[in-house]
Amino acid sequence: MDLFEYQGKEFFAQYGIPVSPGALVHSPDEAVAAAERLGYPVVVKAQVQVGGRGKAGGIKLAADADETRRHAASILGMDIKGHRVEQLWIERASDIAAEYYASFTLDRLAKQYLGMLSARGGVDIEQVAAEDPGAIARILVDPVEGLSEPRCREWVVAAGLDPAATEGAVEVLLKLYRAYVDGDADLVEINPLILTTDGRVRALDAKVSLDANSVFRHPEYKTYDATQVRDARERAAHERGLQYVGLEGEVGVIANGAGLAMATVDIVHQVGGRPANFLDIGGGASADVMAGALEVITSDPNVRSILINIFGGITKGEEVANGIVTALGRVEIDAPIVIRLDGTNADQGREILRPHLSERLELAPTMLDAARRAVELAGGARGAEPAPGGGGGERR
Ligand code: GDP
Ligand code: MN
């Protein structure tokens, strides 16, 4: 779950990370009222879940009511990289002496938390990483050991911040670490983390992504879930309770089980195609779930073919096949479908599907065959298929 800046700052504040006082508003009138309460100068900030708002003109300083009204009116309704601005965050402006970058995320390879800190903040961190990787001080934190104050201090010193920022930065980073761990976040990023002209360290921006699977521990996260920005397909899937992730390709993917769904996405890539999505329909064989999955897939205008990859386990092949047949009768589908059905009672399942086969509905004997056929039906592979033995998939 990605948070808006104002939600990220609320999240930070709960862990004691200093942020500027502010208010969420939806109109120029509300913006002025908030600014009068907060005191000038204020910053008018577009609330969209995309970086680079400043460069796009979505962040403006205002010295008085007139300016606040003008900026609010021009930023509301603005399109920033495809995101329409519908809300503004008005906050008390800070006097900036220096802008830094700080974040925690997971390093999957190292199986540890990764902290990044840089004296070159306020700019795109990917750019810093590309131009001047030495300007980013990294630490790996063992989740069991945690981050000690002495280690945090060494990290801050290594990053080469202004010595006046050291104490404040250590304090903020220890709190940021707590927020990251206790808040079950996937990412916490402050860019810029500022040193003010009067020597304070404060979060001027907030990028937070929370683990949606932790909502049971944090019931209050439901309000964040309610404001999630989803594309139409993701909304449709969410309404139907499906595990769906939208991707950019042409082959719609339906599989049972997250592992198989990921493997299906991989194999579509392997044979030179591009998956349109990840979709796990879970266990069971209900026609409702399959129909819902097909509805979501067909709502994606990019989809040119559909690959249904089912491995019967506890759920038997004939139950799955009956579910598919019923669902196909209920959903209008333009794209051709390739089904791979294997596992428990796969033969009975295929017999049930056979009378329904046509040019628009094919059965494939293996996962690899099914992927190749689905990619072909979607318009063919984009590049050469990797040589046999290269990826290991040929032996399946
Ligand atoms: P982003 O462009 O989407 O990352 O939005 P930020 O919230 O990071 O703001 C972008 C830039 O606007 C910051 O790096 C600052 O230079 C500037 N800015 C934001 N808030 C303030 C403020 O309170 N005072 C001043 N002087 N500049 C600000
Ligand atoms: Mn920023």
Notes on the protein architecture:
The chain is built from 13 helices and 18 strands. The protein is of the alpha+beta class. The chain has 3 domains: 21-92, 2-Layer Sandwich (Dna Ligase, domain 1), CATH 3.30.1490; 96-222, D-amino Acid Aminotransferase, Chain A, domain 1, CATH 3.30.470.20; 232-384, Rossmann fold. The strands form 5 sheets. Strands 7, 8, 9, 10, 11 and 12 form a 6-stranded antiparallel beta sheet that branches. A 4-stranded antiparallel beta sheet has the order 1-6-2-3, with helices on one face. A 4-stranded parallel beta sheet has the order 14-16-17-18, with helices on both faces. α5 (149-159) crosses α6 (166-182), α8 runs antiparallel to α10 and α11 (317-330) packs parallel to α12. The protein is elongated, with a radius of gyration of 26 Å. Bound molecules: guanosine-5'-diphosphate and manganese (II) ion. Guanosine-5'-diphosphate is lined by residues 43, 51-54, 59, 61, 93-94, 96, 99, 122, 191-192, 204-205.
Per-chain topology:
Layout: H1 5-14, E1 22-25, H2 28-38, E2 42-46, E3 59-62, H3 65-75, E4 79-80, E5 83-84, E6 88-92, E7 96-107, E8 112-118, H4 125-131, E9 136-141, H5 149-159, H6 166-182, E10 185-196, E11 201-203, E12 207-210, H7 222-226, H8 232-239, E13 243-246, E14 251-255, H9 258-270, E15 277-280, H10 287-298, E16 305-312, H11 317-330, E17 337-343, H12 346-353, E18 361-363, H13 367-377
Parallel strand pairs: 14-16, 16-17, 17-18
Antiparallel strand pairs: 1-6, 2-3, 2-6, 4-5, 7-8, 7-10, 8-9, 10-11, 10-12, 13-15
Helix pairs in contact: 2-3, 5-6, 8-10, 10-11, 11-12
The chain binds guanosine-5'-diphosphate and manganese (II) ion.
